[in-house]
Design goal:
It comes from Providencia sneebia DSM 19967. It is a multi-pass membrane protein. It is found in: Membrane. This protein is mainly alpha-helical. The chain has helices at about 5-20, 30-50, 55-70, 80-90, 95-115, 115-125, 130-145, 150-165, 185-200, 205-215, 225-250, 260-270, 275-295, 295-300, 305-315, 320-325, 330-350, 355-365, 370-385, 390-405, 415-420, 440-445, 450-485. It has 23 helices and no strands. Helix 5 packs antiparallel against helix 17 (about 330-350), helix 6 (about 115-125) packs antiparallel against helix 12 and helix 13 (about 275-295) runs antiparallel to helix 15 (about 305-315).
Length: about 475
C-alpha cells in the first residue's frame, strides 16, 4: 500500500516526539518536563511540515498535554484534571490573541468594501508611468494596508496579488517567457515590500503580537503599538525607500516605462465606480483605530479593546455583516491556532524546562560581554529563520529559549534584547521562498525562479539585517529606549 506524503509527515512528527521521550531524562530535569518537551517538539515539527492545518496541530498538542497532565505549574507535584484543562484553554482568554483575531476581522472590511483594491489602483494610476514608480506604488499600497490587515498572506496575496499579476501580461511578460521584462521585478518588489511592512507595524503580521505574548509569558514586558512603530521608525524609512530602488538595480526590469499600466488602472478604477459610503465609513473607522492604537497609553485604552470597538462599529454601520463576522474562517482559524500556541509556549516555562536549559546555556555564554551576547542572540535568532517555514513556528519554538539565555547574561537588559530580536521578524521573511505567509504565493507565480529567489533572498535578507544592526540598534538603545519602555 502506498503511503502518501501527508501520512509520512504526520507519522514523522509523532515518531520524533516518541523518540525524544524514549531518551533517558537528562540529569536535573523532572520527568514530566521531558514528557512535555517531547510533546512540544512534536508540535513544532508538525508546524514546520504542515501535513494538516496548523491550528489543528496546536489543538492536538494541547489535548495530548492535558491528557498527560503536563503543562501547568504543578502544586506539590500534583496536577488535577481541572487545572490541566484550565491551562490548556488559557490561551483563549489572552488579549493579544483576540487582538490578532479582531484585526483579521478588520481586514475583511477592506476586502468586502473594495477599499483595499481602490487604494492600490489609485496608487498604480498615480505612480505607474515608470516601472520604478510602479514598484513604489506597490510598496505604498501595502504599507497603507499593513496596520489593518495583519495577515501578510491576505494583504499581499489576497488584495495586491490579483492586481499586480494582471500587469505583466500587458507587456508580454509571462512566467515561462520574458519574465524579466517586468513580471519578475514586480513580483520581487511586492514580496519584499510586504516583508518590510510586516516589521514596521505591530499589527503588520500576526506573529508580531504573538511574540509579545510569548515574551510576557517569559516574564518580559515589551512595547505598545506606538512603541513598536517608534522603535523601528528609522529602519522602516530606509528600507521602505530602498526596497524598490535596490530591486531596480540588482534585478532590473527590461521595460523602464509603463504608460499602459496607467491606462489600465484608470479603466479598472472607473469600473469599480465612485467611492461608496461604506468605504468612507471604513476610512473614518480606520483613522479612529489608528489614533487609539498610537495613543493607547494616553487614552488608557488597551489595543485589543480598540480592535473590538472597531469590529462593533463595522457591524453597526453595515461595513461588514454579522454573517461576515461568523463566516471569516481565517480569523477563527487564527484564534484557535494562536490560543493553543500561547498556552504551549508558556508550558515550557511552567514545567521548568526553560530554567533547566538556561542553566546549561549559561556555561557557554559566561565568557561573553553583554554587547557580544546581545548581538549574537539577535543575529542568530534572525539567521535560523532559514530553517522555518513559518514565522509563527519560529516564535513558538525559539523565542522563549532565547529570552531565557539572555536572562542568564550578567548585566543584560532582557527587555531590550527581546525587542531587538522580535522587531525584524517581518524582514527575515524575505530570506526564503517559504519564510512567511505571502512568500509561497509570489514564488508560485513562477516569475522569480528558484535559484534567483534564493540569491535575492540572501542579498535582501542580509542587507536588511545590516541596516537594522547599524541604524536600528543605535537608535533604540541611545535615542528612544526610555520613551518606549
Amino acid at each position: 500500500m502506498k503511503i502518501n506524503n501527508k501520512a509520512i509527515k504526520i507519522i514523522g512528527s509523532i515518531v520524533v516526539s516518541i523518540l525524544i521521550y524514549a531518551i533517558p531524562t537528562p540529569d536535573g530535569l523532572p520527568p514530566d518536563a521531558w514528557l512535555y518537551f517531547s510533546i512540544f517538539i512534536g508540535v513544532v515539527i508538525g508546524l514546520i511540515l504542515e501535513p494538516i492545518p496548523p491550528a489543528f496541530i496546536g489543538l492536538i498538542g494541547i489535548c495530548v498535554a492535558v491528557l498527560c497532565k503536563v503543562g501547568p505549574v504543578s502544586i506539590n507535584g500534583d496536577i488535577s484534571a481541572g487545572s490541566a484543562i484550565s491551562w490548556g484553554l488559557s490561551g483563549f482568554s489572552n488579549s493579544t490573541v483576540w487582538l490578532i483575531f479582531a484585526a483579521f476581522m478588520i481586514g475583511i472590511g477592506y476586502q468586502n468594501t473594495g477599499l483595499g483594491k481602490r487604494i492600490a489602483l489609485i496608487l498604480v494610476r498615480t505612480l505607474g508611468k515608470s516601472t520604478l514608480g510602479l514598484g513604489y506604488a506597490i510598496s505604498i499600497a501595502d504599507g497603507i494596508l499593513a496596520p489593518f490587515i495583519p495577515s501578510n498572506a491576505a494583504r499581499s496575496g489576497g488584495v495586491l496579488y490579483p492586481i499586480i499579476s494582471s500587469i505583466p501580461p500587458m507587456f508580454g511578460s509571462y512566467p515561462d517567457k520574458d519574465s524579466r521584462k517586468i513580471g519578475a521585478f514586480l513580483t520581487w518588489c511586492a514580496l519584499s515590500a510586504t516583508c518590510v511592512s510586516s516589521s514596521i507595524f505591530l499589527t503588520g503580521q500576526a506573529p508580531n503580537p504573538l511574540a509579545l505574548e510569548v515574551a510576557k509569558a517569559s516574564g518580559v514586558e515589551v512595547v505598545s503599538w506606538g512603541g513598536w512603530f517608534l522603535a523601528f521608525l528609522p529602519v522602516s524609512i530606509i528600507l521602505f525607500i530602498l526596497t524598490p530602488l535596490l530591486t531596480y538595480f540588482i534585478y532590473p526590469p527590461e521595460i523602464k516605462k509603463s504608460p499602459e499600466v496607467v491606462t489600465w488602472a484608470e479603466e479598472e478604477h472607473a469600473r469599480i465606480g465612485k467611492i461608496k459610503v461604506k468605504e468612507i465609513i471604513l476610512i473614518l473607522i480606520s483613522i479612529f483605530a489608528l489614533v487609539l492604537w498610537v495613543g493607547s497609553s494616553l487614552f488608557e485604552i488597551n489595543a485589543t479593546t480598540t480592535a473590538i470597538i472597531v469590529i462593533i462599529a463595522m457591524v453597526a454601520t453595515n461595513v461588514i455583516s454579522w454573517d461576515d463576522f461568523l463566516g471569516n474562517k481565517p480569523a477563527w482559524n487564527v484564534l484557535v491556532w494562536f490560543s493553543t500556541l500561547v498556552a504551549l509556549a508558556g508550558g515550557l516555562k511552567n514545567v521548568g524546562f526553560l530554567a533547566w536549559l538556561g542553566h546549561i546555556a549559561e556555561i557557554y555564554i559566561s565568557g561573553y560581554s553583554v554587547m557580544a551576547a546581545m548581538l549574537t542572540l539577535v543575529i542568530l535568532y534572525y539567521v535560523v529563520h532559514y530553517f522555518f517555514a513559518s514565522t509563527t513556528a519560529h516564535v513558538t519554538a525559539l523565542l522563549a529559549l532565547f529570552i531565557t539565555i539572555a536572562q542568564l547574561v550578567p548585566g543584560m537588559d532582557v527587555k531590550l534584547v527581546t525587542l531587538l530580536m522580535i522587531l525584524p521578524m517581518g524582514i527575515m521573511g524575505v530570506l526564503t521562498p517559504y519564510g512567511t505567509g505571502h512568500s509561497p504565493v509570489w514564488f508560485a507565480s513562477g516569475y522569480v525562479k528558484g535559484s534567483e529567489f534564493w540569491k535575492m533572498g540572501f542579498i535582501f535578507g542580509f542587507t536588511y539585517l545590516a541596516i537594522y544592526l547599524l541604524v536600528g540598534i543605535p537608535w533604540i538603545t541611545k535615542v528612544v529606549y526610555n520613551q518606549i519602555f
